[in-house]
Specification:
The complex is a heterodimer of chains A (691) and B (306). Chain A is 31% helix and 22% strand. Chain A is an alpha/beta fold and 691 residues long. In chain A, helix 4 packs parallel to helix 7, helix 16 packs across helix 17 and helix 18 runs parallel beside helix 19. The two termini of chain A are 36 Å apart. Chain B has 306 residues and is mainly α. In chain B, helix 7 crosses helix 9. The chains are: A alpha/beta (691), B mainly alpha (306). Chains A and B meet through strand 2, helix 1, helix 2, helix 16 and helix 18 of A and helix 1, helix 2, helix 3 and helix 10 of B.
Chain lengths: 691, 306
Amino acid sequence: MTTTEPLPTETEAEHPALAIDGLEMSYIVRGTPRAVLRGVSFEVRAGEAYGLVGESGCGKSTTAYAALRYLPGNGRIDAGRVESGGQELTAMSGRELREFRAQRASMVFQDPVQAVNPVLKIGKQVSEAFKVMGQSNSEAHASALAALKRVRIAAPESVMDRYPHQLSGGMLQRVVIAMALACDPTLLVLDEPTTGLDATVEAEVLDLVRDLRSELNSAILLIAHNLGVIRTMCDRVGVMYAGRIVEEGTVDEVFDNPSHPYTKGLLNSIPRRGLRKTDRELFAIPGSAPPIGASLPTCTYIDRCPIATEICRTDVPPIVDRSDGHWTRCHDADRISDVPEPQEVTVNYNVGTEQVIGVNGVSKTFRQRGHDVPALVSVDLGFAEGETLGLVGESGSGKSTLAKTMLGVHAADEGGAITLRGRQMAGKATARVEESVRAISMVFQNPDSALNRSWTVRRILHRSVVKLTGVKGAAADKRVEEIAEAMQLSPRHLDMRPRQLSGGLKQRVAIARAFAGDPEVVVCDEPTSALDVSVQAAILNLLAGLQNEERTSYLFISHDIGVVRYLADRIAVMYLGRIMEIGSTATMFNGTNHPYTEALLSAVPSVDGIAEDRIPLMGAIPSPANPPSGCVFHTRCHRAIKGLCEVTEPQMVELSAGHSMKCHLTVEQLSEPVHIDPAAVLAVAIDDPLA
Amino acid sequence: MSETSDLANGDAAKSELDRGPTTSERSAKNQIRREQLRVLYRSPGFLFGVLIVGFWVFAALWPSLLTSVGPKEFVEAGPRVKPGSEAWLGTDKNGWDVYARIIYGARPILIVAPIATAMAVIVGTMLGLVMGYYRGWVDEVLSRVIEAILSIPIILMAILVVFTFGRSTPVIIGTIAVLFVPAITRTIRSAAIAESDLDYVMSAKMRGESGLFIVGREILPNVTGLVVVELTVRLGYAVFTYATLAFLGFVGSNITDADWGIDVSQNYEQIVRDIWWPSIFPAIAIASLVIGVNLIADSIDKALKS
């Protein structure tokens, strides 16, 4: 995307929509002020979209809140100015500030479910946004209808009459955006607006914002940790590190020509351009970002920088202009090419031929209020030794249920079987023999939840070793130290509690625990989605390395297609508890796909530029309690054949060796290109059967 | 700055703090606990509470150090003397020194209230953990029992117990404990439900741990903060409940014993004759102990949440 010239709006052409200058802020935590912003300066011009990226804890969200002076009670502005349209925010009184927020600036938060009041109907809440501006009841109602239309909601009357829980996450975020746009703000702040949403829903929201940009003259400040989102949405981007912006420029310049070692590190740490584990390792930025309140050296990045020299320790790095509007805060911007490239992988990933764990015709039906809810329907999967099977699909497609069934959290329905080297395992973990319990373990999504907060790392690992392997005493202690070392945890980490560790270290502990019993299959349920990209890289490298040494198989569940592509040997696509397509990673990304896979793949915002021809999915995933007739996907399929797909359920057909899918269409029909206007889909999305 | 919106967004911004690597690896093992303690020691409410409660604990332990007069000693001034130089807080209708009786009266209340609270917290925590972890029919049955207890008015319960088992101290302790178990159980139960939903519990189930291990070793350490808060909050209520029972005459066998609640009940009728000191001063003593305990409870709660 190219830089759009600031729109010459009549009133504020000379003032930027947001100008932050030398902003320093701290939070008072347990009585001590801790610096979080240390001189942030940037401008968002009218009509421009400006992105902020960086690891968590570097001050992105704080900057966003500061832009509207929405500070928590323990936040304090120490120095600097925040201006919007020429008005100084730091000096405003409470009343002026309220007026400013009501009339000129809006914010959209991360989780739409928390941003709306669950007991009020949508109509009432949207109207409220207009009443604040002094409209009468009837005026506000009319404005609310128009506002919902504006965010491409086709049947605003019916949406107005619903409660938040009756809308899908994407729809709700659109309602929240409608409210934010009520005052036609000059500044719209979006704080991680799509984090926590499915890739397909994320695409829906991003489509909307992109579409709206052309008709609004709002400036947008977008906070996201997903570099792909920033790349596709923004004109300019600022890279934040430890409370400062270290590089700024147009998205194309910054992402294609990074000039700060940190930016380069971030970009190298994500699997780009179809990178696979067989090509090279991911680059993990060593160390972790300085904690809030830490005293910083001259260059904030010095401790993690691969090209730091003596001067970095003695002098504050200057701002170096790279090209028009692109600058970096580095002494050695010219030596950026010295940043070492990640290592090429020399080892071969050998996938065994023998099936270790087999999932044969496994179904799982829950009983809910007297109704049968089929969460898994006849799932067949197999894991060879040392193989990674990627499992993708929207939330609610049954991925986690499959994982839990394999692990014996609940028993599968009669008829199916989970086998360990050909022998059937008991359904429940408590009924399984020790060998079976050991054979499968799990790495959870959120290490904060997965590790007992009040246990030390040593105790966590020790318990699993004792319980799973039966080793006791000194031998168990030794084993704990061995696995910790294999996870690159140092001995002193063993006596810490989880909250004293960073997110990446916590996840290492969780992985160590999963490997304590020397398992055959490790189920990884989104193991990196709660982590920063730099940490994610280290975890993915660790998983790949462990697999190679231990010959373990992975069931790798993830929303992030790039990550799955990097790690997986085969990929299975799940929808409503059914495997829709399964094949080797190469065929999945290069061959003909199931229409659902096609839509999933096209929804991913790429850091390498805009994906062409996105195929939007209509509406939300249907409820498993009431699955559509025939092919379960026909209600949202862009290639559905009337009279066939809604009547007959397609069988799994093998297209080529190891590549199968459930679809009535022929390969020729599936490979015909389709083009769907995203705006058209946004408009019909209301007809989802759930609502 | 608009107060409300700032507060409304406090959580969001704080979560950003939490996500960051605020806990550096260098940090000492118990840094957070230490800082919480510092917040606690510096809060004026806590210090004031400790001062009040400390005084009464001292009075209960060594009453003779605080007064030279015994609780049933007839002082020279005679009965119904106003507070003044002869008797600090006056004398009652029997000619006993009100101040001395208050000092000596601290002991019974400070024996009953903590023991009853401790028992209630122990039983309530165990029940709450079991109900919250196992859910299902265990939870259903116990919930109904708890609701039944909650539905009995305190006074009615006390009358029933006293007429059945007598009014000895152990009976009173047991009564107050039983009365308090339901509320504590509910609090701990909801915390245990939240904990049971976390993945570490699922992980324990996956490696085949017994329910007892999960409840006692995995979940319990994570609700101890709540247990401490519950302990202090309930202690305040227990003081009040004991005083109420004493006032109503359900406590002790001898109405001449020094006890704040009994003293209030023995002397309150004389307020109409302008003899207010024998009943108001013990009442203030009760109030001060309740307030002191609550100040401590509030400060601990705040420090744990900071």
